[in-house]
Every structure is written in structure tokens, then in C-alpha cells.
Amino acid sequence: MKPATALYEALATESGAAAIRGINRGIEKESLRVASDGLLARSEHPRDLGSALTHPHITTDFSEAQLELITDVFDNAEDCLEQLDSIHRFVYSVLDDEILWGASMPCVLRSDDAIPIASFGSSNVGMAKTVYRRGLGHRYGRLMQTISGIHYNFSLPASFWPWYAAQTGHSGDPQTLATEGYFGLIRNFRRHSWLLLYLFGASPAVCKSFLSGRDHDLESFDEGSLYLPHATSLRMGGLGYQSDAQARLQVSYNSLEDYALTLREALTRPYPEYQAIGLEQDGEFKQLSTSLLQIENEFYGTIRPKRSIHPGERPLHALGERGVEYVEVRCMDLNPFLPLGIDAETIRFLDAFLLHCLLSDSAEDSPEENEALRRNQTRIVNRGREEGLTLEDQGVMRDRTQWAEEIIHACIRTAAALDEARGGDEHARAVAAQLSRIRDPEQTPSARILAAMRDDTIPFFRFAMDASERHAAHFRARPLDPASRTRFLQQSADSMRRQSEIEAADSMDFATYRRQYIEQELLPGRAPAAAETG
């Protein structure tokens, strides 16, 4: 296989530019619905937004009050953001006096019981989604699940892999090469994702209500807010979707088989703490299983290998049968300075960064390196903007700024190739903009949030509420044209009809469905899972 330097040189050719012309991306954006007083909305998912189970663009995440807005797949940033904007404008035409919370860390919260778990109807697949969320609530608490973010889905066009095979001397089938390539990308992403937390982290503070009764190491910013002076993304640290149980997992990304085998253990072996919760009480399931992970999606990583699944299919089975289709970046905070939470500049940098992760040499990971990556993430989350901060790189401590500039300079080459493929210089300018933030931490979103709170003498709640109200006004000032709104309403009606059809087609009770889903084959060609089910 050619070294990375040769791949970068090949990418700079006409054939290289053609191979990356058509990179695909999609966005999934989570946002809490809040009432006019800033408290979490207690209302049900609005009927005009359709079925959370079947709508292609509007669903819910953990809570009934936590919308997830999903774009189609696009080969350019502008169209992707345009659709996300249209979805927001439709949502706001339905919300009346509610608004979407514009920050990753949640609004003022009262208690776990005041957070309604999302409902997906009475079908077996819908009930499985709800029971899974019940399990998350029992295991981690509902408060933690209200944290929101942006998931960025990225894939190379089909034309890329034959070109990549020619450059690397790979003689296998394109899907095998794609799967291997994406796992190499993932390994490098995990090594360098601390840079994304530094550049785009936007959760340096939180309302005190979020941590009421919980131990923490944060400092008081004012009577209503907690923070750390140099924090970047508290969402990605100990306050977020993390757990001591998951921290002990040693998941390998060295190959699809290694990944599946290391996850399979967590999906099939009963875990004592979750056994103690119990599986069922008074005829109602409390969780899908008593294993460390109920399903694959419970494992929280900064990035995931993904494959579209068939109805009722386990994600690991889909990966094993058909390989990796795309990667899902999961470490991006909502930027409260942007109505959509993300902009084209950020997307273009992500594309250059991910392409760099794919083309760079990607050594195999190890349990020792995984522990170092966890330590790096903790340092960046809590102290990312601290002057002189050092991070671990293959057993050596490195200066944060020096290492960040090294990664950026590599991304300059991939940005140039992307600009050659598409024309213009937008990718180069997006990468250059990040270089200035590396050299001046005060330009990062996390620093700007704290500066705004200090300058205006306001708590985190007031800062986030003001931003959310500005975003709401931005969308409501630009209502959809009647034809577009009618199309959205028709989508909602169609999704409600599809949900009814799914419910009517169920032919087994939920207990049987749950057992069959949990016990289905995880790895094609291997024995079915043997998790405790009953």
C-alpha cells in the first residue's frame, strides 16, 4: 500500500479530483422544545409534525420534547443546509409559542420525572424504541439524555473506491476496500477528534439545575451557572452520555470483525447493575435487555461506522452482511451563535478533516492507546483552551497548539483537492479560519460563550434563551411558501398513515418480538446472541 504522502500527491491529480467529486453528507440535529418561560415543553410531539416513527425528516430522540431534524443525503454543503433550514421553518410554523433550544446543554430542568420519554406508537418496533429509552433513563438518568448535538454523516462517492484501489494496490471487491478504508478513517479520527472539540466545542457552562444533587468538579460562574474556565465541550465529558460501565469497554476498530466481536460481548453478557434494575415489572418492560448495552446505539463513541438497516435488523448484522456505508460523526455541539447550529464553513472543514483521516497512515489501535485517547478527551473537554496544554501522542506528550497546527496543515492539502474537485476556494478558506482559532483560543465558540456571559452579566440560561429566541425569530420571519408547507404537511400525513399500517401488520406480542430482536444473529455466520432475555 502506498504511504500517505503518495496518496496526497495522487489526490492532487485530475483523476484524484474526479474521485472525490460527489462526497456525500447529511445532518441529524437534536434540539429540545421549550416553553416561552424556558422550561422543557411537556406537550406531546405535535401531530402536524407527523409520526416520530416514520417521518423521513422529523423525529424525536430520547424525550418527547427532543426533536431530531434529519436531512437527506447531499453532495454539497449548501443544499444540505438549505433543506435543514426549510425543515426548521416548517417546524416553527407548527410550534405556536414553543421554541427550539439553541444550545447543547439543556434548559432549566426540574427532575427526571419531569422529562417525558419519547413515544413511537403501539407497534412492536415503536414499543422497542420507547423501552430502549426507558432503559437509558434507568441506567443513566433522564437528565443526561436531554443533552443535544449534531451528528454529521459522511461518505465517499462510489467512484472513489476504484481510484483508491488503484492507488493502494488493493485487489479485493470495492465494498471490502470501503469497509477497511472507513475503519482506517475511524482510527485516525479518534486520535485527532480532540481538535474538533477544541475548535467547535460550545458547551463550557451549564445551568445549576442540570447538576442538582450530583457530584461534579465545576466552578460557580454565577448563582445560576456552573462552568470551567478553559472548558470546550462539557457535553463530551463526564457530564454527558458517559458511564463508568462503558468506560471499561475496550472496543477495537482494527477491522469490522474486531469491532463486532468486542461490541458483541457488551451486547450479550448480563451486567449485574442492570440485572438489578430488572427486565419487566407489572407487565411493562423497563429495558430491552440486562446486558451492558441494550442495543448497539447505546455505545457512545465520537464516531460510528454505519450501514442502512432493514426493518427489524440489528446494526451489527447489517454491517457484517453489507459492510460500512458511511461514518457518523457524533462529537459536534450545537453552535448557539448559528440558527442551524452549524454552517457551511464548519461542514467544509469537516470534509477536509475526514478526508485527511482517510488518506493518512492508520496504525492499529490498542487498549493502551484507547486509554490515552480517553485522557486526551478529558483534558480537552475540561481544559482545552488552557495555555500550554499538552496531550498524549503515541506515549509522548505534545503541545496542543503545535499538534493542532500540524493537523491543520495536512487538512490544507485535502481542502485544496476538494476545491479542485468543486471549483472555488471555500474549503481552503474554511481550513484557514480554523488556524486562526488555534492560535487565538478566544475565537472559539466556547470562549465566545463565556465572554458573552461575562460582558452581559447573564447566566448560561439567559445566554442560551436569548440565542434561542433570536433563532426562532429568524425562522418565523421567513415562513415557507404555501406549496412547500403543503408538501411538508403531506409528508406528515403520509407518515401517520405508515405508522398505522405498521401497527396493523404486527403479528406477534411485544414480549416475543423483543426476545427475537435481542437474540437475533449479530455476526453473519456465527451463533445468535445469547443475552439474558427473561
Kindly describe this structure.
The protein is α+β, with helices and mostly antiparallel strands and 534 residues long. The chain has one domain: Creatine Kinase, Chain A, domain 2. Helices cover 47% and strands 11% of the residues. It has helices spanning 4-11, 14-19, 77-94, 124-140, 142-145, 160-168, 174-192, 194-200, 244-247, 256-268, 272-277, 315-322, 344-359, 367-383, 400-422, 426-439, 445-456, 460-476, 482-505, 510-519, and strands at 24-34, 58-60, 66-70, 99-100, 150-155, 205-207, 219-222, 225-227, 280-281, 284-285, 303-306, 326-332, 390-393, 396-399. The strands form four sheets. Strands 1, 2, 3, 4, 5, 11 and 12 form a seven-stranded antiparallel beta sheet that branches. Helix 7 packs across helix 13, helix 13 crosses helix 16 (426-439) and helix 15 (400-422) runs antiparallel to helix 16. The longest helix has 24 residues, at 482-505. The chain is globular.
* Number of helical segments with 4 or more residues: 20
Which fold name fills CATH's third level, the topology? Creatine Kinase, Chain A, domain 2
Domain count, please report it.
Answer: 1
Q: What is the CATH architecture annotation?
A: 2-Layer Sandwich
- Cα-atom radius of gyration: 23 Å
Describe the sheet with the most strands. 7 strands, antiparallel
Shape: globular
- The percent range for strand residues is 5-15%
Mean pLDDT: 93
Q: Outline the low-pLDDT stretches.
A: 530-534
Q: What CATH first level would be assigned?
A: Alpha Beta
Q: SS-based structural class?
A: alpha+beta
Q: What is the share of helical residues?
A: 40-55%
The quaternary organization reads as: single chain
Number of strands: 14
User: What distance lies between the first and last C-alpha atoms, to the nearest angstrom?
Assistant: 49 Å
